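Appendix B, record 7
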Amino acid sequence: MGKKAIDILKIDVPKLIDMLNAALSEEWLAYYQYWIGARLMEGPMRSEIEPELLLHATQELNHAVMVADRIIQLGGTPVIHPKEWFKLSRCKYEAPEDPYVEVILEQNLTGERCAIQRYKDIADFTSGKDHTTHQMATTILGEEIEHENDIEEWITDMQRMKDELKKLRKK
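C-alpha cells (predicted):
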C-alpha cells in the first residue's frame, strides 16, 4: 500500500494489523478444522456434508489469503509461524477426536460464530476509517454467516431425521 494511502487512514494501523493477524491465525485453524473434520467424519448425511465442508475449508483458505494480503498492504507482516496461531486466536481449534458428523458440525459451528464476531469487530473498527479493510471484513463476514447458516440447517435436518426415526419406532 502506498504511503499516501496509509497516511489517509484514520485508524490505529498497528492495532488493526494485530486484529488482522489474529483473524489470519483463526482462518488457518478454521481451514484445518474443516478439512480434517471432513476427511474423518462418520455418520448419517456424511456424503452430502463432506463436500460442503471441504468447500468451507477452501473459503477459509481464501479468507486467509485476503487477510494476509491486507496485512502486507498496511505495511505489516503476517504471522509467520503456525505455533503463533494458537496464541493469537480467540477462536478455539477443536480436534475431531470424535468423528461423528454431529460433533464435527457443532465444532465448526462454534468456530463460525467466533469468526462472525471477529469480522464484525474488524468491520466496526474500520467503518468510515479504512474502506478497503472494511469492505474485506464485511465480505468475509457475509461468507462466515452463510457457513453458520449451512451448519445450522444440517444440524436441524439431522435432528428431524432422529425425530422421524423415533416416531417410526413407536409404531
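Remarks on this record: The CA atoms of residues 126 and 134 lie 5 Å apart. The longest helix spans residues 131-170.
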